[in-house]
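> call design_seq(struct)
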């Protein structure tokens, strides 16, 4: 059986097309990396952060979106931000359908950004929350029924519901030296949307808890040790909170809004 040879000009053309395609992808990727780098440093300066935040422009191919003055999705995440009350927190914002008409593809620091949908979050890890509560061993978990749920949470970003979170720690302020698990509900104070309220509802026993009994005469003091109000928790870009819960061992306040216009300086509110 004869093997048909590919003509050399055809083969050369195919190789040239492949090389050009790879080069185009490389240029597109490199341009997106540069845009992310520039935006990260711009957010740091505009929002007065101590370091450059993580920035991701989720666009492929990138250059056509930049030419249309429109990004499908943009993420900003700043870790270990100096924050009211607990000392450090993580700030996150996810923007969808970002209009760059007034900003350019590199996004100027003072430019107005119309956004189709904006998700905004404050994330407080259990270590900093525990220090504020006086419990260096604090751990936070989602409600048991959600921990075992394959969906990973009740919101798109995987945040649990606000009722029945499991807080485990040693409440020394209650003169109790054993690690206990307490069911805690989270809510936003009705008189102040920047205040997160922690309301313990009972001591938990059984699997996946500290499984520590609390004497009746200690129960009220132990529950009070997990009672807390956290003021000045203002979400990036001033978004009003719409849900609060846990993800991993973090407490998260999330706000979701649509059809807003923001500027980069509004990423950090306090």
């Amino acid at each position: 059986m004869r093997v048909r040879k590919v003509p050399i000009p055809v083969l050369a053309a195919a190789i040239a097309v492949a090389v050009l395609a790879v080069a185009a992808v490389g240029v597109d990727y490199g341009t997106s990396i540069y845009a992310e780098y520039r935006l990260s440093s711009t957010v740091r300066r505009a929002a007065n952060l101590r370091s450059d935040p993580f920035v991701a422009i989720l666009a492929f191919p990138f250059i056509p979106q930049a030419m249309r003055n429109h990004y499908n999705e943009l993420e900003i995440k700043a870790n270990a931000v100096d924050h009211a009350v607990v000392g450090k927190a993580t700030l996150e914002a996810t923007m969808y359908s970002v209009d760059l008409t007034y900003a350019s593809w590199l996004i100027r620091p003072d430019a107005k950004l119309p956004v189709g949908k904006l998700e905004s979050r404050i994330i407080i890890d259990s270590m900093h929350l525990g220090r504020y509560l006086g419990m260096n061993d604090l751990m936070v978990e989602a409600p048991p029924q959600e921990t075992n749920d394959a969906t990973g949470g009740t919101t798109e970003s995987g945040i649990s519901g606000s009722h029945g979170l499991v807080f485990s720690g040693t409440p020394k302020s209650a003169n109790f030296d054993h690690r206990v698990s307490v069911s805690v509900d989270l809510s936003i104070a009705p008189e102040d949307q920047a205040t997160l309220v922690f309301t313990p509802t009972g001591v938990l026993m059984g699997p996946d808890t500290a499984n520590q009994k609390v004497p009746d005469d200690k129960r009220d003091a132990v529950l009070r040790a997990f009672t807390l109000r956290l003021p000045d928790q203002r979400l990036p870009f001033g978004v009003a909170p719409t849900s609060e819960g846990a993800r991993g061992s973090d407490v998260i306040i999330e706000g979701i809004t649509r059809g807003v216009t923001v500027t980069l300086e509004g990423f950090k509110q306090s």
